């Protein structure tokens, strides 16, 4: 059994309009204290004609990215205080995370405008895999979510 179990994951709107705001709801349980050295890996695949292709990690942190030692990254908030957005959703800004139920409801995530050649490839179906792993240790939790993206059309004919 894993230390992190997800009971529910939902995102709206579907498809996600780019640029726009995605709202995420997650719930689950931490069955034990998480270790102090935790890495998070996000792998996003885009499907072309039914075949998955990995989306790279772009410089703005969008895509298939790795986030090493989350606890060390949270230490930056010790001096400045936990951001309001994290406090609002009951997300602690320190490690270790203690066992218990978590419920994040309607968390807004900004989906930025995509520039360059990538704009022609935005529309379509995707799968996001989130893996939480103890550094040099076992997988603590995993979540897979399927979603679709649709580029916002603007102009005199389109108002989406």
UniProtKB/TrEMBL annotation:
Keywords: Signal. InterPro entries: GM2-AP, GM2-AP_sf, ML_dom. One of its GO terms (cellular component) is cytoplasmic side of plasma membrane. This is MD-2-related lipid-recognition domain-containing protein. It comes from Lymnaea stagnalis (Great pond snail). Pfam families: E1_DerP2_DerF2 (PF02221). One of its GO terms (biological process) is ganglioside catabolic process. Residues 12-148 form the MD-2-related lipid-recognition domain. One of its GO terms (molecular function) is enzyme activator activity.
